[in-house]
Amino acid sequence: MSKEKPVIIIDAMGGDFAPGITVDGTCQMAAESNAHFILVGDETRIKAELKKHSYNEEQISIVHTPEMITNEDSPKTAIREKKNASVLLAARMLKEGKGDAMVSAGSTAAVILSASLYIKRIPGVKRAAIGTVFPTLKEDKTKSPYSVVMDVGANICNSPDDLVHYAYMGVAYLKEVFNFDDPTVGLLNIGAESHKGNDTMKEAYKLLSSRSDLNFIGNVEGNDITNGKADVIVSEGLTGNIAMKSVEGVAESVKKLAKMALKGKLIWRLGLLFLSGGIKKIMKVASYEEYGGAPIFGFDKLVIKSHGRCTAYAYKNGLRTALEAIDRNMIGFMRDSISKFEADKISE
Amino acid sequence: MSKEKPVIIIDAMGGDFAPGITVDGTCQMAAESNAHFILVGDETRIKAELKKHSYNEEQISIVHTPEMITNEDSPKTAIREKKNASVLLAARMLKEGKGDAMVSAGSTAAVILSASLYIKRIPGVKRAAIGTVFPTLKEDKTKSPYSVVMDVGANICNSPDDLVHYAYMGVAYLKEVFNFDDPTVGLLNIGAESHKGNDTMKEAYKLLSSRSDLNFIGNVEGNDITNGKADVIVSEGLTGNIAMKSVEGVAESVKKLAKMALKGKLIWRLGLLFLSGGIKKIMKVASYEEYGGAPIFGFDKLVIKSHGRCTAYAYKNGLRTALEAIDRNMIGFMRDSISKFEADKISE
């Protein structure tokens, strides 16, 4: 394991279309980098997929395991009963230093439970977080076209300290992976004023305001998620989850509306057709396919979760995210800023 | 005040375009009903507006007050300092039995504070709630095209009992005002399983499940708001507010996207134009303009809040909501079902 040649451990069996898209995406990323990729999973099936692609054999190796966690499994039970499931083995290998990051398109619960079993958290961090990346319509092109909201459901409740940790982690993510300077931080709340919200939010507001190394812009509301008022939006897991799914619900309804229009008059169909190019162009810069996967935040080693139904192209971009984060030492930046926060708490 | 001739007390000065649209909407509704309307506000300005319309003079009267709460006022301060503001006077008149309902397009905070000052809550109810009506895309045309989510921000935290009260109030609203039988009730939560969420949600789940007079379908998630999985969605104020604003945010972003398309190629503009008829037709059944205003839930008398920026047509429909709710005795139904719930709690 050297900085010059990063090693990515891949849960080759995780995801709805594994190992087809995981192997395909890996071969694509191998061609675009000098990294090494360890495919963890059923050797026979992985080899069958590898045959479909041309790749540099020195860049890809296989670690065989016959077990895997499927969509039919309850993640909690499977984690106990399938000790050699590909996702668990990948996490164990990451712990043992056999790679710099693990990437999985398996279920979020399975990935978090596997990582929790083997990977320590960043010193000071008590609760891991799931971040969701939202495309936003920011006018200012020098800002990140994405917002990251976290936690969106790894937890129900969080402490004010958790929310400060998430702010630092989100900032490191946008800075080091997306290359955006000085991301702004907002606290998801019921109103803009500093006294709004529950006790956790009020205390988090104070803590976030007191940190000169955070660009905290104050409370933000639900509608600020998609308008991009803040680059990093921190939230307790319960509220973050409900916000994220509310946004997703509208996206689903818009798709349904489009389908209804398609069943309607010819002129509506033409309208959709004419418009689709414009929508695609506007949205491309922030599309899910382009970033491919996001870290599970809070672990002291890099754990990337890709979408369960992602394409090989999106999977490749998830691997690129991993390589970028390794190259830029994203976890190190999280560790440093959080340890500074923890030290300041003690000295106060 | 008689059942035959309902009397509506109107905060004529409340809303961004008052008294223009409030007077216009009132004249429209007067023409479509036999109700009496009391316009509360600046007599000179109201009379100037009335002159623009033809109406039956027996149906409309004016109660003069020179004071009003404007957008520039802090509602909390204004409620204390402007004792004769139109919205406060309207609430006082409602208390004194001078009408069957009050309607205001003033700020939500001003309306709730005014009502709280003078109107008792439904027996058993501890906290008033704001409900937001969402258009949904339900396939089943016999179901309500609207969902109502409450509370969306009158409170931060709520008790499990509050959430049961809200369920009964939402059901009475959809049944008596929108005429939909047996509305379903869902609990906004972080996941579908009964053990999900915080302690309040877990306890509320149990209470709601135990009520045979509620069609409770279990937990619903953020994306279920717009897909219409449940007709009535109950939530603590904090989570409901964040969910509501998250949905609104996407709607704002879609509008912004459309604007960007309008600035783009001719073909995109044509696309939007072709599609607009279809979107309008699909959305019409559930548009905001059609229902015009929603009750502030929990008061023992009918308090209707219309949108601050609503049109005269929407305002008229808010008045229609008031008349419908009076005619169908909506508050009475809320009172009965909640008192039954409260009695059952004691006898258990």
In short:
Two copies of one chain form a homodimer. Chain A has 348 residues and is of the alpha/beta class.
Notes on the protein architecture:
Chain A is of the alpha/beta class and 348 residues long. The first copy, chain A, folds into 2 domains: 1-125 and 298-348, Isopropylmalate Dehydrogenase (3-Layer(aba) Sandwich), CATH 3.40.718; 126-289, Isopropylmalate Dehydrogenase (3-Layer(aba) Sandwich). Helix content of chain A is 47%, strand content 16%. Chain A contains 13 helices and 11 strands. Chain A has helices spanning 20-31, 43-50, 75-81, 86-95, 108-118, 160-176, 199-209, 224-227, 237-263, 266-284, 288-291, 312-327, 330-347; strands at residues 7-11, 36-41, 60-64, 101-104, 129-135, 146-150, 184-188, 215-220, 232-234, 293-297, 302-306. In chain A, strands 3-2-1-4-11-10-5-6-9-7-8 form an 11-stranded mixed β-sheet, with helices on both faces. In chain A, strand 10 (293-297) and strand 11 form a beta hairpin. In chain A, helix 4 (86-95) runs parallel beside helix 5 (108-118). The longest helix of chain A has 27 residues, at 237-263. The mean pLDDT of chain A is 90. Chains A and B meet through helix 8, helix 9 and helix 10 of A and helix 8, helix 9 and helix 10 of B.
